[in-house]
């Protein structure tokens, strides 16, 4: 997949002052990581916790950008926004800034994405089986985009791959390594532990249900657990949602995923 990194929108100026850029397909754990990091840095600096980008860029907090980059460019951009590169990381920032690639097993991604686009965004009204094969929302685009990213950044010392599965298996170690990549130096143990607790799945789901995050983190329907942004957070739960035909389709397409992500689909 060829990437033409031209961003002609007003948003491009954010990237010039960014301290780091997080790139992922949707439902790869970026909200979890984002909440942890900004709780940690706000605690460390004695500032109020916020996820509002304008507030962050006007404050002393590290300026981190979270983007779906090429995936959103291909899946959601209008012709005008696609031409202007609204969702793309600009070429210079892609070359010079610290890049964190957040990844998750695409089989789990596609399930969570299905609930996102049907119950939260209301931008798709087909079945999961149909969406799996969809040219814009399906597994094919997810694989193509993930391969394009790791081909572009995978061998750079300015890039760190952070897998959702590792965040789940050993949250403390994974988040500690992430902080070390973004901000080398001693980690404040008290702020770190408080932020681990604040960003736990149970606490984030409760805060979302109570509307504590506003529009950034809110359910599509407070009475429907499947419409929450913090939905289940499970690893490997995809099998219960697919037919055998779907699983075979997945297996064939996932064979194309770059092995550097560390997922095995034998």
Topology diagram in text:
Blueprint: H1 12-16, E1 20-23, H2 30-45, H3 53-57, E2 64-67, H4 69-75, H5 79-84, H6 91-96, E3 99-103, H7 106-120, H8 128-132, H9 139-153, E4 159-163, H10 164-169, H11 171-182, H12 189-198, H13 201-209, H14 244-254
Parallel strand pairs: 1-2, 1-3, 3-4
Helix pairs in contact: 2-12, 4-9
Task: Please characterize this protein's 3D structure.
With 266 residues, this protein is of the alpha/beta class. The protein is built from 14 helices and four strands. The chain has helices at residues 12-16, 30-45, 53-57, 69-75, 79-84, 91-96, 106-120, 128-132, 139-153, 164-169, 171-182, 189-198, 201-209, 244-254; strands at residues 20-23, 64-67, 99-103, 159-163. Strands 2-1-3-4 form a four-stranded parallel sheet, sandwiched between helices. The longest helix is centred in the N-terminal third of the chain and has 16 residues, at 30-45. It is globular and about 55 Å long. It starts with 11 loop residues before the first helix and ends in a 12-residue tail after the last helix. Residues 219-224 and 226-231 have low confidence and may be disordered.
Number of DSSP helical runs: 14
What is the spatial order of strands in the main beta sheet?
A: 2-1-3-4
Structural class: alpha/beta
The value of Rg in angstroms is 18 Å
Q: State the end-to-end CA separation.
A: 25 Å
Number of strands: 4
Which spans of ≥5 residues are poorly predicted at pLDDT below 50?
A: 219-224, 226-231
Mean pLDDT: 89
Backbone shape: globular
- The level of helicity is 40-55%
Main sheet specs: 4 strands, parallel
| Strand content range | 5-15%
SSE order in H/E notation?
HEHHEHHHEHHHEHHHHH
């Amino acid at each position: 997949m060829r990437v033409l990194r031209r961003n002609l929108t007003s948003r491009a100026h954010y990237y010039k002052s960014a301290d780091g850029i997080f790139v992922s397909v949707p439902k790869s754990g970026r909200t979890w990581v984002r909440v942890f990091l900004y709780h940690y840095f706000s605690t460390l600096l004695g500032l109020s916790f916020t996820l509002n980008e304008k507030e962050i860029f006007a404050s002393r907090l590290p300026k981190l950008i979270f983007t779906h980059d090429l995936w959103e460019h291909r899946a959601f951009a209008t012709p005008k926004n696609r031409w202007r590169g609204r969702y793309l990381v600009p070429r210079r920032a892609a070359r010079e800034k610290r890049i964190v690639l957040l990844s998750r097993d695409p089989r789990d991604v596609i399930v969570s994405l299905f609930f996102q686009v049907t119950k939260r965004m209301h931008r798709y009204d087909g079945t999961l089986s149909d969406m799996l094969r969809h040219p814009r929302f399906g597994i094919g685009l997810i694989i193509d985009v993930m391969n394009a990213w790791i081909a572009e950044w995978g061998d750079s010392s300015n890039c760190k791959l952070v897998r959702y599965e590792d965040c789940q298996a050993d949250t403390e170690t994974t988040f500690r390594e992430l902080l070390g990549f973004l901000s080398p130096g001693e980690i404040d143990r008290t702020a770190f532990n408080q932020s681990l607790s604040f960003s736990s799945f149970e606490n984030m789901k409760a805060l979302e249900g109570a509307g504590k995050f506003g529009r950034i983190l809110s359910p599509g329907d407070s009475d429907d657990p499947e419409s929450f942004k913090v939905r289940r957070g499970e690893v490997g739960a995809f099998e219960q949602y697919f037919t055998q035909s779907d699983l075979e389709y997945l297996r064939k397409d996932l064979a194309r995923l770059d092995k550097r992500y560390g997922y095995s689909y034998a």
